[in-house]
Amino acid sequence: MLTIAGLREDYRSGRKAPAAVIEAIFARIRAEGRSPVWLSLADEGEAVARARTIDLSLPLAGVPFAVKDNIDVEGMPTTAGCPSFGYDPARSATVVTRLLAAGAILIGKTNMDQFATGLVGTRSPHGVCSSVFDPRYISGGSSSGSAVAVAKGLCVFSLGTDTAGSGRVPAAFNNLVGLKPSRGLLSTAGVVPACRSLDCVSILTATAGDAETVWRVARGVDAEDPYSRAFAPALGAAPWLSGSFRFGMPRETDLEFFGDVDTPDLYRKAAEGLEALGGAATRIDFTPFREAAALLYSGPWVAERFAAVGDFLLRDPEGVDTVVRQIIMSGAKYSAADAYRAAYRLEELKQDAATEWAGMDVLLLPTAATIYTKAAVEADPIRLNANLGYYTNFVNLMDLAAVAVPAGFRSDGLPFGVSIIGPAFSDLALTALAGRFLHEIPATRKVFPGCIPVGVVGAHLTGEPLNHHLMERGARLVESTRTSPDYRLFVLADSVASKPGLVREDGYDGLGIEVEVWAVPEDRFGGFVAAVPPPLAIGNVRLSSGEWVKGFVCEPLALNGATEITQFGGWRSYLANERATSGVASRRP
Fold it and tell me: Is 57 labeled as catalytic in the residue annotation?
């Protein structure tokens, strides 16, 4: 499959030209036929002409993409999978506008479960998409065409939507990465709503790195979207990525695979993959998550679907899939009192879930417990669809972020995927962990979103008296290392308790000073700095690797009367020597 990083390197090197790539994709679509993946295509001549003149410095220059047909594109009809609902939007959705401005080239709009109501990909009058691994099996939905287009190499990335799993399930069934961002980070202005308070624009790609790249371009506050939120890095701080982390797994009694004989073992192997990256599994009570999931379709949130398109269904029900119509029209029966009762219950379940989150950094779940044939779904459309949402339906209700990633293949060659789930705004932490899980980036690479690396050399070291200042702020140890050779260490005079003073001296060539680097959440860094007493300060410290981090330094004036201890190589070695010397002195007659 094509990737953003690979394509951009090909463009830079001259191995490929953007126009030739776009021409080849349209040629493949003509040869294979539009149906059932594509509902409408961009003008090929305009797309190729744009590719010829694209500014290659743009982050998505010449990168072909697709959008789900419930997302507006100026000049192309929006139907949400229902032709009789179709309209011609006056302008493109905000996310589409941002991607085009970044240089991406639109190929077309893709098939979907009508009104984004389904996880199966079969509820469309335009034909049924299949998993690219076996035409007998469903593609997953509702972002069916968006997933298949990427999996077939007809675009590099695509946009879907995800209210209950509509971006994650098709990613799993086509061996893709499916990023469901935190609610509100990607604008839904210009998106036909399913449940407007929960809807997210999702991203489908071949790699976690590509998903992050698209996310960075597409996100941003939008005044046109009342649910839009600014990204808050500190709220998604992930100091746990610096080393060991905790991932939750449901208790064995809570796990459900609906009779699939292969996926339980694949799920366990995925857990082993996280353990190999430094993760520690912890079993959780899945009950609050499962009960929240049940609220989505067995409670008044279905009324949001009716609020979105119910009037249209009342006027023109004939063009709507029978199952979709049944689900949406059921929303009319709920009262305002029902909505409030469900909202109260959801808050109770969030509180219960918070107890479980206290013991984990991320939650690891199957994206879907199993996969079904088209024939099976046709015979039992509602129950099997509900089974596919067992591990996905609660995520937006509980204001969580998630990334679905490939996790092996069943014995029949069909793919299996898992989802790594985190709190709101943990998007970057999730894509970083997914990149490690998929071996896209080295496990040793230091990435800790929302955190500031801080070097400590004295009483804040592990086991020393002030280390609790770091621990209380949720900081995690990244590494134990040394400064660059041009540092000297002193014991400061006139201190109630012994304090080290770290000084960089140009031209000094020593062995470096022992230092621990801690990842401190951004929103707690200020409080940590405020607690640093004079003559110490937080400045910049260079490590033996050449990397600069924030760290403890001291005012030059404080060196008056100070005793140099550079020869000990670090504060702990100096203290050990002091204790040994003191012990000898106390034993003398």
Answer: no
